[in-house]
Design goal:
523 residues; 10 helices; five-stranded mixed sheet; alpha+beta
Length: 523
């Protein structure tokens, strides 16, 4: 027991010291974050899809807790090993440092200094374990008197006492010092982040030269349980691979536009973007990981600069006009790469480099200071957050992050609909029950929504006023509910005349399909 405890304290020391060193390097270099990022990079699409489906936005927390549990088990095992082989046990701790260092330095955005937190933490932890294991070594001396017993047995089964008091003192001191180092590291990181947060709070977005049209009065039906037309920032879905949300200093941020046949490469600052003509639009975003009826869709009022204008100024032409590049590779500060078709960005839709969301600078979770927003494309091929680089290339020449993991390289959003109310397994009373939800087909628009009960005839729902073809649309059907167990289904038709297929497929490789259904008991 004491040996395992010594191992746990050594592991705790490694994490706390690494936290302190990471404050001097950068938060992303911490060992749990680095190893977690490496795990995410190597996770098969099916496993990632399972995590998002079952844990939602808590998938990263689950991953980090899993890493900590495995680390605790490893630490206890090493502690037991060190009881008999002190040097071997201490050396095993260094494996922790090697794994963390390789994981941190091997990430796409990794820097040489990212290896330092894990390396220093492991070195200190190895020393602590060696010290504690020494306190557990049997103390030689005269045999115990009649009626007395030793404190514990040695690894060889021979009876012998160990320095219990010395172990407790050393373990307590190591734990306290480690906790102090960890708290100091957290305090330093919090102080750094507070400065960036304050700087974001001081930003005032200029009024857009092209403001968004007013949302029609009938766009939000105001039905209880129905998603609001505009999704508040705090409720907007977040799906990405960042275990630590990047906190980018807007004053130091730069965006580079370069690549294939870019005749006039461009480097822009945040103030450069704010000084240009800003466009404001209501746009619905959808994550490709959204299951049928899932929550990963939302609408916000975005403000930013037209990406097509910037590309044209750099000398870029779409393929339809003879341009050689057909892919934009956007790179984030956290190493993510997103591949977007040049043709779609430059076909006249409101593709933006967004700087604002719902009337304020972008929240950190959603890409501050700048992100991409392209209506009609799933986020994994369009919505690069924390963007810092745009390279023009071809799909044949480069596979972006998700394409390397078996997702399709092009992914227009599929027509989908969702029942928001009544909820699954609800128990409404007989009589008129409003069945309501949202439907979306960005850049095509929704023309019809239909609902049916228990596989019967389809009934046309009443559509809310349309705010634009790039936003979702609310709908409602007044159901004359009768007593019993019922299944409600919904399907939508977009403005091209295409109706949702009933064929259920998963999210991989280019988005889920099928009709959303809800089971209720009318009593």
């Amino acid at each position: 027991m004491f040996a395992a405890l010594g191992g746990l304290i050594a592991g705790f020391t490694a994490l706390c010291v690494a936290e302190l060193v990471a404050a001097a390097v950068r938060p992303e270099a911490g060992p749990v974050t680095a190893v977690g990022g490496a795990v995410i990079d190597r996770t098969p699409p099916a496993v990632k899809d399972f995590a998002v489906r079952n844990f939602g936005t808590d998938d990263k927390l689950v991953l980090q807790l899993g890493i900590l549990v495995l680390l605790a088990v490893f630490a206890m095992a090493v502690g037991v090993l060190a009881l008999r082989y002190r040097w071997t046990g201490a050396a095993a701790v260094l494996v922790f440092g090697v794994v963390g260092s390789v994981a941190a330095g091997g990430r796409p955005e990794g820097r040489p200094t990212d290896a330092l937190p894990s390396a220093v933490g492991a070195l200190v932890a190895a020393g602590v374990l060696y010290l504690l294991a020494g306190r557990l070594s049997p103390v030689t001396g005269p045999p115990p008197a009649a009626g007395e017993t030793d404190d514990e047995e040695t690894a060889d089964g021979e009876r012998g006492a160990f320095d219990r008091r010395g172990f407790v003192i050393a373990a307590t001191a190591a734990a306290a010092a480690s906790a102090g180092a960890g708290l100091l590291g957290r305090r330093l990181q919090a102080s750094q982040l507070a400065g960036v947060s304050a700087a974001r709070g001081d930003i005032t977005l200029p009024a857009p030269a092209s403001p968004a049209p007013a949302i029609p009065g009938g766009a939000d039906l105001g039905i209880r349980g129905l998603s609001s037309f505009t999704t508040p920032n705090k409720d907007f879905y977040r799906v990405d691979t960042a275990l630590v949300v990047p906190r980018v200093d807007a004053d130091r941020w730069r965006l580079r536009i370069h690549g294939k046949e870019v005749s006039r490469p461009v480097t822009l600052s945040f103030q450069d973007l704010l000084g240009r003509e800003l466009v404001e639009r209501d746009i619905t975003l959808t994550c490709v990981s959204n299951q049928v009826g899932g929550p990963y869709v939302g609408t916000a009022r975005w403000i930013g600069v037209r990406l097509a204008t910037l590309l044209a100024e750099a000398g870029v032409k779409p393929p339809s006009k003879g341009g050689p590049a057909d892919q934009i590779v956007a790179r984030s500060v956290d190493g993510m790469t997103i591949g977007t078709p040049v043709e779609e960005v430059m076909d006249g839709r409101d593709a933006l480099l967004a700087v604002g969301m719902n009337g304020e600078p972008l929240p950190f979770d959603h890409g501050f200071p700048v992100r991409m927003v392209v209506p009609g494309l799933y986020g994994y091929v369009s919505a690069c957050k924390w963007i810092q680089d745009i390279e023009l290339t071809t799909f044949d020449a480069y596979d972006a992050y998700w394409v390397k993991r078996d997702w399709s390289r092009e992914a227009p959003i599929k027509t989908q609909s969702r029942i928001d109310t009544p909820r699954p397994f609800a128990a409404p009373k007989p009589g008129t029950v409003p069945v309501a939800g949202v439907a979306w087909a960005q850049h095509r628009g929704i023309s019809r929504v239909e609902v049916r009960v228990d596989g019967g005839a389809w009934h046309t729902a009443r559509l809310a006023a349309e705010a634009g073809r790039d936003t979702w649309r609310q709908w409602v059907w007044e159901w004359p509910a009768t007593t019993g167990h019922h299944t409600l289904e919904v399907r939508a038709t977009d403005r091209t005349g295409a109706t949702q297929t009933d064929k259920r497929v998963g999210t991989v490789p280019d988005g889920a399909t099928g009709w959303h259904s809800v089971v209720v008991d009318v009593t």
